[in-house]
Write a structure and sequence with these properties.
mainly alpha; globular; 181 residues
Length: 181
Amino acid sequence: MTGVPIDLGRLRALDPVILSEAHRRHLPEIYRYAYYRTNDSARAEDIAGEVFLQLIEALNAGKGPRQNLRGWLYGTASNLVDGYYRKAVAREVELPNHELMAEDADPSSQAEQLERIHTVQAAFARLTPEQKHVLALRLGNGFTVKETASLLGKRPGAVRALQFRAIHSLRQNLSDGKPSL
């Protein structure tokens, strides 16, 4: 069943076999996307799980994906990640990433590494939501330009341009030593 597209009619009918297959097939990539965007495995697990809860709720309400399950799942994940950051900014919460820290490093090396992580996270945070979305799909999940374009409903050239601008902005922000608009 791996190469065969998910039957959206059976999905909308809440067929447990199709729901299970959709979950099995798409959960890992939704998790990777959320992890790439948040750098927090627990948060990524929560977001990935919430995506599938929202899928079931939408299907129960007679809504949900009509043409592209994968695109619907990524769109929902993107909205949840964006909501997480909006809430974090409103609460002024620091978004640490201790998972990337080397556990056996000395304290000064850990401090330097933490500073680099925060610099990259701050530079990434300055990107537009669309740029973050493209980078997460392309670099975080390894999708091709064509796959990314299909998921975003854009032309491949627009995806390449968006990715180019995002990487250019990251480079500029990182070379300045501090992220800027």
